[in-house]
Amino acid sequence: MATVDIRNVRKSYGQVEAIKGIDVAVRDGEFLVLLGPSGCGKSTLLRMVAGLESITGGEIAIGGRVVNELDPKDRDIAMVFQNYALYPHMTVFDNMAYGLKIRGIPKPEIQTRVAKAAEILELGRFLDRRPSQLSGGQRQRVAMGRAIVREPSAFLFDEPLSNLDAKLRTQMRVEIKRLQDRLGITSLYVTHDQVEAMTLADRILVMNHGVAEQIGTPLEVYQRPESLFVAGFIGSPPMNVLDARFDADGRAVAMPGGAVLPLDRPRPADAGRAVKLGIRPEHLALDAAPGASSILVELVEALGADTVVYGRLPDGESLVIRMAGLPSCREGDRLAVAPQPGALHFFDATTGRRLGEAA
Amino acid sequence: MQRRVIFDNKLLPYLLLAPQVAVTLVFFIWPAAQAIWQSVHIQDAFGLRSEFVWFENFQVVLSDPNYVGTVKTTAIFSVAVTALSLGVALLLAVLADSKIKGARAYKTLLIWPYALAPAVAAVLWMFIFNPEIGSLGRLLNRLGYDWDYRLNGDQALTMVVLAASWKQVSYNFIFFLAGLQAIPRSVMEAASIDGAGPARRFWSITFPLLSPTTFFLLVVDMVYAFFETFGTIHALTQGGPGKATETLIFRVYQDGVVNNDLGGSSAQSVILMVIVIALTAVQFRFVERKVHYA
Ligand SMILES: Nc1ncnc2c1ncn2[C@@H]1O[C@H](COP(=O)(O)OP(=O)(O)OP(=O)(O)O)[C@@H](O)[C@H]1O
Ligand SMILES: [Mg+2]
């Protein structure tokens, strides 16, 4: 077990800067999820921790020891790859035992460690099979087994579930969570699936274009997104973002389409300022309260437990609302909607960073 | 349940197969049958009459002490050519597969020798190894090493082995490189995280995963060394000096075409065929078992 410290780490491929200075201190036993859209540099960062990619700038320390110049084998980490990367010519047993044999662990201990991992992962029946004779989910478990028998300081996962179908993914997600709770090994986990991130993470690092947009617990990231990017990336359907303006004394905010929402806490410092206003679809309710906006319903999606309503404000901006239960409106209806109190997020109109809270 | 394509026309399937069957008949079965027929006959000096003689041709061939020598030369030659061309090609392919600058140009250059006719290749080798005009040949002599493959049998054999391997290296290289590139990078990365150094990764991961390719090339190279090196030997040494570079296939040509001993030559062809069939069978029986078809 160990901490993983990433200090101002950079990575360039020629002229292209893929990682532009990331700082994060992963605590001992913590589960950190790297979340971000495709191409944002998640894998690159993980592979730098693994030693598969050289580090252009900054420092990575595992267990307090700087590993920049160490080979992957000397970093005491184990990695689970997206395509599992099992050794096709070896049996399941040999796949798991390979790293132990190389490290000169005595045979009896290899036997017990592999047997234990196989038991945890329910792979006992498959130890003599080749990877080609296993299903996707079973291969995934072998890859996990290969990582846990090593008893490393840290686990690195690069989208380990993305090749599985939806049902199996959910099941494996729970298994990974259980495993990590049980073993308590520091883990870095790359994904672009926000549900995985929210459910697995102790903390999430949200990445975009090679920078860390926000590092925080799943709830922090959901409740207090630090930037428009995070606000839009976390949550489904994504947060509504509208062009709005504080009124002259900072006591209310003018919505597009004319409605004026009173603020529960006035912001005199921001009086008259143009901002981006964020409201989560689940924080909008059908309500004729003061400041409610009128929308024209364009599409209603009934999901069973929830209903998602796509509407349009009078000035043409779209607004998404998520309500519990079955639909109570139809396409073409006009509705009055208002946000729940305290559910407004304000972002700087140019930088997209979150505005500080009202005093 | 097995699905079958139904032909209304009963003749069509045979018609479609006919070209393949014809080619096999004309270029393989017919000559082979002729060789077998010839091998049990003796022709008179003018080639007008032939007489059935049972296995006399075989007896004569096999009791000729020179023939045993040729078998030995062939064994050394083919094992050396196969081992050398496989080894060098594998080494080059591993180098080309790792990230190096100018890898494309390098690959193209390596593939060229395969496109050369044996006679042209032989001339190139002459320019290198000839003791009077060859660059390396002259250098060796100047350094005090007595190099002349036209007089020294071992040197001649070394040279034809080099020349014959060189051509086959290109062929092997292409297959090895394709084989290497089919190994997922992440598998090698997983091995290096598991603690395997480069040598260990090669022997425990790369080599086993390449084994289908290696096995295929082993069979192909063996057949190449036995049958297709005639042109190279003919152009470089004509089997000499003495009989130092005379392989079985060269001797078949020598006895049949030059010495006009059709019966003896045919008997040798038949023996050669049997040897190659036996070798291939042995390879499939014993070596293929160690091959992992992933
Ligand atoms: N070898 C390379 N040479 C040049 N650019 C590269 C190389 N590898 C990655 N990149 C670039 O670095 C950026 C980050 O790539 P990375 O693989 O880390 O993305 P990712 O976040 O893992 O995306 P995904 O979710 O699609 O896997 C990308 O823009 C990619 O084009
Ligand atoms: Mg990736």
TrEMBL record, chain A:
Residues 4-234 form the ABC transporter domain. Gene3D superfamilies: 2.40.50.100, Nucleic acid-binding proteins, P-loop containing nucleotide triphosphate hydrolases. The keyword Cell membrane applies. InterPro entries: AAA+_ATPase, ABC_transporter-like_ATP-bd, ABC_transporter-like_CS, ABC_transpr_MalK-like, ABC_transpr_MalK/UgpC-like, Mo/tungstate-bd_C_term_dom, NA-bd_OB-fold, OB_MalK-like. One of its GO terms (molecular function) is ABC-type transporter activity. Coiled coil: none annotated. PROSITE patterns: ABC_TRANSPORTER_1, ABC_TRANSPORTER_2. It comes from the Bacteria. CDD domains: ABC_MalK_N. GO terms for biological process: carbohydrate transport; glycerol-3-phosphate transmembrane transport; glycerophosphodiester transmembrane transport. It holds the Pfam family OB_MalK. Belongs to the ABC transporter superfamily. This is sn-glycerol-3-phosphate import ATP-binding protein UgpC.
Automatic annotation (TrEMBL), chain B:
The keyword DNA-binding does not apply. The chain crosses the membrane at residues 12-33, 75-96, 108-128, 156-180, 201-227, 267-287. GO terms for biological process: transmembrane transport. One of its GO terms (cellular component) is plasma membrane. CDD domains: TM_PBP2. Residues 71-283 form the ABC transmembrane type-1 domain. It holds the Pfam family BPD_transp_1. The keyword Cell membrane applies. SUPFAM superfamilies: MetI-like (SSF161098). Keywords: Cell inner membrane, Cell membrane, Membrane, Transmembrane, Transmembrane helix, Transport. The complex is composed of two ATP-binding proteins (UgpC), two transmembrane proteins (UgpA and UgpE) and a solute-binding protein (UgpB). This is sn-glycerol-3-phosphate transport system permease protein UgpA. It comes from Azospirillum doebereinerae.
